């Protein structure tokens, strides 16, 4: 499951590279600007959701894919803080 803007951006970058597209090409194909793609892939948390979803669909990702994606390793910050389960989390 995708838990952060950084994980989402990394998944988009992985798919883009698998398609052998440049950031410019993805921007053109998705109708966004190259700067948006750079910020999305770098995990900028304030990216616009609708544009981010258009980009995800452009590289072949759907919302269901985001839930099924294996979690990425915790960042150093997450390691130090630990993962706090949310209400109803069955961990």
UniProtKB/TrEMBL annotation:
<feature type="region of interest" description="Disordered">
    <location>
        <begin position="68"/>
        <end position="91"/>
    </location>
</feature>
<dbReference type="GO" id="GO:0003677">
    <property type="term" value="F:DNA binding"/>
</dbReference>
<protein>
    <submittedName>
        <fullName>XRE family transcriptional regulator</fullName>
    </submittedName>
</protein>
<dbReference type="InterPro" id="IPR001387">
    <property type="entry name" value="Cro/C1-type_HTH"/>
</dbReference>
<dbReference type="Pfam" id="PF13560">
    <property type="entry name" value="HTH_31"/>
</dbReference>
<dbReference type="InterPro" id="IPR010982">
    <property type="entry name" value="Lambda_DNA-bd_dom_sf"/>
</dbReference>
<feature type="domain" description="HTH cro/C1-type">
    <location>
        <begin position="12"/>
        <end position="66"/>
    </location>
</feature>
